[in-house]
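Example record for the data management plan.
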Amino acid sequence: MYHTWMRYLTPSPVHHRLGLVCLGVGLQHGALPPVGPRTLDHHVAVLVSAGGGWYRTAEGHRTPVTAPALLWLTPGVPHHYGADPGTGWDEAFVDFTGPATATYTELGCIEPDRPVVPLSDAAPARAVVSRIARAARTGNPLLEVETAAAVHELLVALRRARADTGADPLLTALARDAFEPLTVAGHAARHGLTTAELRAAVRRAAGRSPKDYLLTVRLGRAKELLAGTDLSVAAIARRVGYDDPAYFSRLFTRRVGAAPVHFREQQGRPAPGDWNDRVPDSEHPPTVLPASR
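Corresponding structural encoding:
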């Protein structure tokens, strides 16, 4: 015995320019019949939040699926899966496509080579799917836009829910040490890793190389200092780890698209008095209190 609800959408060409579009959404539970073998021309995220079942590859390899878990169905890849006929499972699925799938794959948010992904908690992603289902109601004038926006959010929620989040403390440590004069090899040695191991861990956790991750942390802090203080560009360069202000300016310009002085002209709003030499902590932003009556 099983229960199922699903809705399929047909976004217009202009909606596809949003980067991602939702093609379908479904909520099902119980001893659902097996799916496949089949091959699709788009992506599907199948979220299993309770129960268990199995997934079989084209080569016949069978992998157990135990909730909470995610099944990635990717274009051109044959797949075959199903709930355990005795216990069934609780499943939510979202079909989607769009040019942004390539970028999300590069960043590790979609994993074509890992069709079964254990999750630590399915609830946040399941809540996003429920919002997609509500948005897919008949007569919603923003149906395609609302569901497309939610697909972006879903990919982030699924990535955050992945069970193998052991690399996150490493990213925190790298961000903390980003302004020190260390090479990538130096950062790796500090954490007892080889450069290759550090590169693999950061790529798995952040979808980018350690060098690029450290650079984004440095440039983010440099932008805060340019916008929120009167420090010179040379002083800011030193604070974010660059002894050569000219090199820092060239790097900033190439990556940001504007020179540091031009960025400050556009974004600079230094506060008066003693706020000129410091930036609020992003973890504890200042609170604007309502005016007293």
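Summary line stored alongside the record: The first strand starts at residue 2 and ends at 8.
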